[in-house]
């Protein structure tokens, strides 16, 4: 099982060639199983790009994309320093919300944007006070 990079295909072709010289049948196309999590991540990243929810697109005008970009900006601001983290924790206490850390999504983890949005929803009251 591999991700979709071309060097994996090159490697499997080399294995096929080496085994065929030893008269062992090996079909590299048949044996190459792409990692489902990697494929899901590629699809999720494409959806985020379609919504214009990537960090390099500051001019996001799609509602969902704009929301995600603004949320990332807020989370980066909160995580920018220990003082900001302490301020956020204090706001959690004021809002009587469980002290949960904010989650910033990571491009290589297909479900991290979902995790970020779910956590942000739980901390909505606090983030309104903080921002």
TrEMBL record:
Annotated signal sequence is: none
Q: One GO molecular function term?
A: zinc ion binding
- Tell whether Nucleus is among the UniProt keywords: yes
Keyword tags: Metal-binding, Nucleus, Zinc, Zinc-finger
The record's SUPFAM superfamilies line, in alphabetical order, gives:
Ribonuclease H-like
Q: Where in the cell is it found?
A: Nucleus
The cellular component terms of Gene Ontology attached to this UniProt record, alphabetical and capped at eight, are: nucleus
Its protein name is Zinc finger bed domain-containing protein ricesleeper 2-like
Species the sequence originates in = Rhizophagus irregularis (strain DAOM 197198w) (Glomus intraradices)
Q: What is the lineage of its organism?
A: Eukaryota, Fungi, Fungi incertae sedis, Mucoromycota, Glomeromycotina
């Amino acid at each position: 099982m591999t991700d979709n990079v071309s060097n994996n295909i090159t490697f499997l072709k080399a294995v096929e060639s080496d085994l065929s010289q030893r008269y062992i049948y090996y079909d590299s196309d048949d044996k190459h199983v792409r990692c489902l999590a990697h494929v899901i991540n590629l699809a999720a990243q494409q959806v985020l790009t379609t919504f214009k929810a990537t960090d390099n697109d500051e001019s996001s005008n799609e509602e969902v994309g704009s929301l995600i970009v603004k949320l990332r900006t807020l989370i980066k601001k909160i995580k920018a320093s220990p003082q900001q983290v302490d301020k956020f924790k204090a706001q959690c206490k004021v809002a009587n919300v469980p002290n949960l850390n904010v989650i910033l999504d990571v491009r290589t983890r297909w479900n991290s944007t979902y995790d970020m949005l779910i956590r942000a929803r739980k901390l909505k009251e606090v983030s309104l006070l903080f921002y």
